[in-house]
Amino acid sequence: MAKEEKKFYKDMRKKAHEFEKRSEYLDHELKIMSFKRWRFNLPIRDWGVELEDWVPALAATIGKVVMVTAMVAVFATEYGLDAAFVAENVRWELLIGALFVILFSALLMPNANLAGTHGPMIPLIPLIAAAGGHPLSLGLMVAFFGLILAFTKGGSKLMTLTGVGVRGGLLIYLGAVGLIGQIGKLEAWAASTDQGYISFAVIGITLLIYAYLAKLKLRWVAIPVCSIIAGVVAFALGAEFHFTTTPGLPHMSPLYWWGETTGWQLGWPNLNQFIAVTPFALLAVAMWSPDYLGHRVFQELNYPKRCRRRIDGC
């Protein structure tokens, strides 16, 4: 009788010492992971956690903090809120994001690309405010349309319609906009302290480090490594280092966040505000799939060739 084919991750898993190289072991792990859609995928049975997983986790945390801060800061400017509110809101969003990452990315739909905070939406925030939009109604409408997209597998359809050729344009556009914006902010920060040379040194050194990491095929460690090196270089050149906020948890009560005189100081949204944000919510959800094409490029560069099912997503 032919030996029954092993189909489950826990059955196909091997010990790291059975491979000559660590990279071969990690590639094998990616090839054998078996996920089920909308069912609980449990650690050890369906997937495992390796030491290397902390690197993208740290990179994602850095990116989430930066993007949420940028998004909330623009909202705060439009609604006349101070920097203390921005810090409080970022803490709250990180907690919510962590819960959704655990629930969806780790347990229910590991193949799905978890929707993040879109940088290209930031220039639209003044328009959302001018249209009478409410941040809570915007978030709820994005969640509503996003769930429809997930249940209908519309993300995969949008990716197909977008086409491979759009990938390069999106990467160039989003990369250029992000790069120009961040360089401008870095130069403005250095100039505000009369230490303009710091921005030049940080940009130059991080570019060299990234190029070297790419040569070693270690692009996946670039964000945390370059962030740490940038901080060390800036501090060594005389930049001031101090915390402007103290550690702590945000307000947990929804009544605080959506009060008339607390939190966003906007109260609870009404029907008109839901209608006002609907076009922006549709645009945000429509941007998820093209945005994912950029993520997919980096996955294809770093995942082994026989891992298509891990890259394709939902």
TrEMBL record:
The keyword Transmembrane helix appears for this protein: yes
Membrane-crossing residue ranges in chain numbering:
57-80, 92-112, 124-152, 164-184, 196-213, 220-243, 271-289
Name the UniProt key words of this record, in alphabetical order. Answer: Membrane, Transmembrane, Transmembrane helix
Q: Which domain of life is it from?
A: Bacteria
**Entry protein name:** Conserved hypothetical membrane protein
Q: Which organism is it from?
A: Desulfotalea psychrophila (strain LSv54 / DSM 12343)
